[in-house]
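Let us practice reading a record.
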Amino acid sequence: MTNHWADLQHAKVFLVEGSNVAENHVMALKWMNKARDAGAIVIHVDPRFNRTSSMADIYARIRPGADIAFLSAVINHVLVDKLYDEEYVKLHTNALYTIGDEFGFSDGLFSGFHQDKHKYDQTSWGYDLEEKTHKPRKADSLDDPRCAFGKLKEHFARYTPELAEQISGIPAAQIRLIAETMAKNKPATIMYALGMTQHTVAVQNIRCYGILQMLLGNIGKLGGGVNALRGEPNVQGACDMSVLNNYMFGYINYPNHDQPTLASWTRENGTFRAKMVVNGLKAWFGDNAKKENDFAFGLLPKKDAGKDYSIFGMFESALAGKMKMLWTIGQNPMVTNPNLSIVQDALAKLDMLVVQELWETETAAFWQRPGADAKSIKTEVLILPAAYFMEKEGTISGSGRMVQWRYAGVAPPGQAKADFEIIDTVFKRVRDLYAYSTEAKDAAIVQASWKYANAEEVLKEINGTNFKTGELVTKIGELEADGSTSSGCWLYAGVFAGGKNLSKRRDMKDPSGLGMYPGFAWTWPGNMKILYNRASCDANGKPWPGTKPLVWWDETEKKWKGHDTPDVPVPTDGPDTPNVQRAFRMNAEGVGRLFAAVYKDPGASARDLPRDASYTPKDGPLPEMYEPVESPTGNVLHPLVSVNPCVKYPRIKGRQPIGSTKDFPYVLMTSSIAEHWCAGSTTRNLPWLNELVPEPTVELPEKLARELRIDTGDQVKVSSARGEITVKAVVTKRMQSLRINGKEVATVWMPYNWGFKGLSTGPSTNYLTIDAVDPGAGTQESKACLVNVRKVAAQA
């Protein structure tokens, strides 16, 4: 989230797309309702009419997988009718930066595409650079067709509301209404969840949000932003802490095999990020990380740049017999992964499976699943009984980046232990086994700095230490590149400032009256509540007219002040300096990127600024509408390039079939439900929740149910190219058919929270779903695939 929960009260418009916030993020709903009481408008875009839809002022039903068509038409309407914030766009985005003449887009492909590799050479996606400074040239006005703004207008001009209606099913008039409502009632905030990310165009879905909010001037302001509603199981905190396969601590790129030294890694990622790597390595290896040995960078195992290390790559490696052991912690892939037949067969190829969980889950008991031949499965399965979140203490980082300490309510039962204790015990025993090894491959284990008495000691290491003073660091700005400081995750530097665990704070004072609560817990980075808040001010550091002041330049005291921590690198650098004209300082350009050009700041290394290199999505510098891998229709924009060209699917011959409308005429979308949480491992073992929702179902539109002669309660078989399951039908108005490209398309909905273990059992919907993934984020296309539905004949 760029903003935070309490800040939602300042929004005048909510665009909720890809989230059922009323059911799944009820604390967000609390602050939304406060805004609604003040007159805020709620727009909900979703294929299914749910509890969020019922409270919306505008509900727009959309076909699953057509979000880019809809959002592109909204962006186009803003551009054509000049509803954008011109001053904001010129100052805080790359709108005026000119793009190189080599860039092009035609028939669904950007310039530089290699068909055989499913990959772009991004060289042509750069700026037109000045010869001496190597900085982007700037156009004189937004009307220059060579500038990023001109490219934006040209690209999105194809997306008329009428075309978007044809693709998405949302009426053109409603698309115009949504665009006008957002543009004329600012600030507006956008809220999304997995409904936008579980697609093969996941990154570009969210890019649309960023582009729209930058055009409207809604980033960095109270009540604005693009806000990802992360899951309850500490998803935000987990992502912060190195569990993503492509990132180290604090979203720092993990090194590949062609980056054997810190210097080679730095050339690609920049000196600011290299500084944070040094601090992280000092936390991980302590005194064994020294300047003379490249701060132990060589001890990090390097990834093969051409290999897939995502969960899909893991199971595909196991299926091929290349992975021998899997240790899952708090995850149940035998319910949550798409195309489950691959998961079950991959688990059977392992030598050992370790499951760290509260329950004997479907993953732990995969060999007991209905139809399995247990005698033929040689995998040794170990279960490590883990404590529930109410039975252990430590931090949890919420969606708004707030780090809060949670205390244990009760002791864990029996032999169950907190995850920290389990991992700590296993690592120490492994280290003992390797204690006398002199082999290079074992050095990372032998030389690791690992001496934690409790979870709070881990948080201190994450915060970081100044070795010269022996004190814990108080902010990111204190971290040095010479090894004199450490931080296990640079974003969290300051959470233990002054030797006090600030995540334990519970001060409910709100001096600003804006819902900032600066003394309640601690928010990364630097207790900042709203990211990019420098953008809430004009070039002179004054809050934009008509907005609530958030931060500002105090001319008398010569420093940045505000109700929030000012998002500037040096608080005493005035608005006329390069440092603080740059509201988006983590980008190489220092501004927001309407066009995601390939760019490295040639001067950043010398000035040690945090904007060495900018990220460019693998599948294009601008979003483009591509159909899901399994779609009920062709791509009307470019029929020959229907799906995302960077998607590689199938990846395993014979195991990843692609269905067609001939055999599977209906669209399936899946989601979680409020009553059963994630894989349902916990909730399906609670009798009172099972009474509320006892089994999985499929929701059908009334018209489709009439055609198939299906009534509520009937047993139906739902099938895809990957599998079939039998569940009860629910005939409902919540689901409706849409007119798409001249053809009626029916969508059905199913929850995914069931499996064969627990007090409530049921078939897993993910036997049906497709495991095609986004080329950048690696998220599966759970929200759109093709199925057939037929009534099961009653047994005599």
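A brief commentary: The first strand starts at residue 13 and ends at 17.
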